[in-house]
Amino acid sequence: MSTSLAAPTRTRRSAEAAKDNILAAAEKILIEEGPQHLKVLEVAKAAGVAHATVLHHFGSIDEVQEALMTRMIRALVDRIVAIAHERADLSEATMAGISDMFDTFEGRGVARLAAWLELTGESRRLTVVRGAVREVIAARAEKGLHLPPEEVEDFMLASICLALGVGLFGARLSALMERPADHARATALHLLQTATRKAWAGEGC
Questions:
Q1: What's the CATH code of the domain at 19?
Q2: Residue 184 CB-density burial (10 A; 0-12 exposed, 13-18 middle, 19+ buried)
Q3: Exposed, middle or buried by CB within 10 Å (0-12, 13-18, 19+), for 74?
Q4: Number of domains comprising the chain
Q5: Between 20 and 30 A from 17 (CA), which of 122, 147, 165, 172?
Q6: Is the domain of 179 the same as that of 87?
């Protein structure tokens, strides 16, 4: 009596799940190896799919990078907005959100990816940042912050620039100045905290 073995079935992901899988693999490469390793073949290998699958869903590695930046900024904004709603003290909530941003730019590789996009002439793909800033400002307004939006936007622009600088060079420059590795970060956060307290206390940046 012969027994037939059924062929193993291949799990078919939805398009959204397939994209998430590819972007998760790309993020892992970004964090562990840097943006220069974000190539179609390497992302496909890490995601366990054919390189044609990556191209099918994104078209090019540039589109993967843009989608990855959007995904990481989206996750950051969601956390910052959640912090704004969870904490009663607006100054405390602001600094907690900024600290999270520094973590993301340093540890998650956002600063390196942003710099890579700039150096490769793809900085136009950073437009997601504008919408993110305005969403955070709206969340602050809901909590009772009534500063002019342009002042809050300028404050956030300065915060992002500091986070980018710390994410790219903070540890190295701190070491060159014979300071602890986190000295540049601590100094930047102290400056922002001082500005935050003055702004929130006097309703003016």
A1: 1.10.10.60
A2: buried
A3: middle
A4: 2
A5: 122
A6: yes
* In a shared domain, residues 19 and 66: no
Q: How far is Cα 121 from Cα 65, in angstroms, rounded to an integer? A: 13
Instruction: Domain of residue 97: give its range.
Output: 61-202
Q: Are residues 42 and 53 in the same domain?
A: yes
Three-state DSSP class for 135? Answer: helix
**Same domain for 111 and 45:** no
Read off the pTM: 0.79
For residue 88, count other CB atoms closer than 10 A to its CB: 8
CA distance 160 to 150: 15
pLDDT average per 10 residues of sequence, the chain (205 residues): 44 81 95 92 95 94 92 89 80 88 89 89 80 79 70 88 94 95 95 83 54
Q: Return the sign of the alpha-carbon dihedral for residues 192, 194, 200, 203.
A: negative
Task: Kindly state whether residues 52 and 85 are assigned to the same domain.
Answer: no
